[in-house]
Amino acid sequence: MTKYSAMLAPLDLGFTTLRNRVLMGSMHTGLEEGNFLSGSMTKLAKYFEERAKGKVGLIVTGGIAPNNAGRVAPFAAKMTKSSDAKAHLEVTRAVHDAGTGTKICMQILHAGRYAYHPLAVSSSAIQAPIGPFKPKELSNADILQTIEDYAQCASLAREAGYDGVEVMGSEGYLINQFIAEHVNHRKDEWGGSYENRIRFPLEIVKRIRQKVGEDFIIIFRLSMLDLVEKGSDWQEVVHLAKELEKAGVTLINTGIGWHEARIPTIATCVPRAGFSWVTKKLKPHVKVPLITTNRINTPEVAEQVLQASHADMISMARPFLADPYFVLKSEEGRSHEINTCIACNQACLDHTFKGITASCLVNPFACHETEIAITPTQQKMNVAVVGAGPAGLAAATTAAARGHRVTLYEQSNQIGGQFNMAKLIPGKEEFHETIRYFTRKIESTGVHLKLGCKVTASEVIDQKFDAVVLATGVVPRVPEFEGIDHPKVISYIDVLRRNAKVGKKVAIIGAGGIGFDVAEYITRNVSESLSVEGFAREWGIDLTNEARGGVEGVEKKMPGLGECEAVYLLQRKTSKHGDGLGKTTGWIHRKVLKDKGVQFIGGVAYDKVDDTGLHITMKMKDGKSEKKILDVDTVIVCAGQVSLRNLEDELTAAGIPTHLVGGADVAAELDAKRAIDQATRLALVLETAKGKVNYAPASSLMQKVQGFMMSR
């Protein structure tokens, strides 16, 4: 019996069989629209082909609109005519020709009031808190036409070679906007009673089944936990699931939370498989196979969920950005080689919401398969990489994979660099996985690793390296004010790396990513593990799912400041704290710290530190200034970084081609996404590289338009 017998078992759907129980969940990557000018779908085809080669059982595409109003943004993908279907043949052929038996479904998604364009429509004319346009209320005739548009879209998907469709009925999109009272305020036959509100999704499924026949997969993405006020209650969810089964769905997929819900559902702080209990609760009520999802990122977790009968199938989306060969590696007993998704959202969701092609922080090849690839070098070089942080690890392992002889120097006794601090932050424990992955990658690619080695320029020159990559990182920037050398003052390095003692009352200077991380670290509740129960308590989720929407009337119980009595998060800027944090995760960090009781203070000038505390001058709203003394025991400096480039001048003077990557190139915030991407791209052209290789995500014309609309 294989180690992952449940995950790798086939799933019989009656008219067809899936090769295993793993579904690559829907993600909008920016590739769905194809080439804006030529209509070519080559990039999307290659992206899915790689995942098919990795032997995933079933793929679901990013959302494709059934009509113009349903598009998520101007020029976004739609399937409304035969020419659209013809273009998609390139995608389905690539998947099927991979020869692994992987099947692919197209997701039909109508944005409803979440659309970023003025044609937005909904069940009622109520603007979304995250939407820029007030939607038009659909008339009865509009509704009937939209139902027909869904059916026609599904028929065209079949014409395009897809094995089925997924109807997006969750996450707060149009169908969900009809189902829940949260948006549906209609008084006609499409609103009011629950029976009326679910007519829309049921008619869509029935019409699709009539149009495509019985031998075509229909997945319905059902919102089982809305996480918004006036969402569905549990009995309503069960009722709709039963009716969907009667209407002809093949599979029911789990949807968790609306996009506007103020509860994280896929961020790193969410426990692994943190919502599979919802799917388990529905399982006794229907016979069609159920798919569970959200924060399942290792084969061990997937297997555990299936063995516990929480679901019949596992949906993983971002893990297939991180590693297209997730299933293949599991099947071949190489799960320790999987590049694990850390749920950071930085290159996937954040890119999508900025109108930039998605990718992956730990795998910059994702969505760029036609642009970059590891190819054997024709000119083997002897390469030194100095620094085994994110950039150095990416550069060393990629260069070695191409055939270069690589020596990786690291002055500490472990690899990982800044990741070793990040993994200590509550909710960022997944960085352990990235370090594990690179540890194995060093072994498999033959990198010569030298730990505890503070290399000098003369040593590097003596070794006669053909090229040197400096990934030496950064050192904390020390601000200038009186008392900066006072015993109360320490740096974030002292706290996270040297385990310095922190007092009960703390001021943190700097409210960027590091400042937020330090605040979360010192206010952590040491007795609370990352558990489903603890997460539910902190965010006010009813684990019985009896409360309407799973949240109505449920009290949140944030643990407070941990062992601290007072924490101040300070910044010079008057803008929002954490303004530069991730677009889709920044709000989580702000909310967590505020709910704990951390005090945010902006517009601050730092005067001095003495025995009485931190002296500051605050800029008030009326333009005046006010001096204040914060009675604190500890002042933690998180005021930025300075690039560490101490070897560059000597190596360059010696005539050795020297390249700067990661923090050694640009300090700014600690940016692992940029560091890994830049270092990888350099390693791919190392033998011909003359200068530094920049991190610059591509943006098509269509995406620039989306970005403009999203910024309004």
From TrEMBL:
Transmembrane segments: none
UniProt KW keywords: Flavoprotein, FMN, Iron, Iron-sulfur, Metal-binding, Oxidoreductase
Domain FAD/NAD(P)-binding: 381-658
CC cofactor: [4Fe-4S] cluster; FMN
Pfam families xrefs: Oxidored_FMN, Pyr_redox_2
Family: In the N-terminal section; belongs to the NADH:flavin oxidoreductase/NADH oxidase family.
Official protein name in the record: Uncharacterized protein
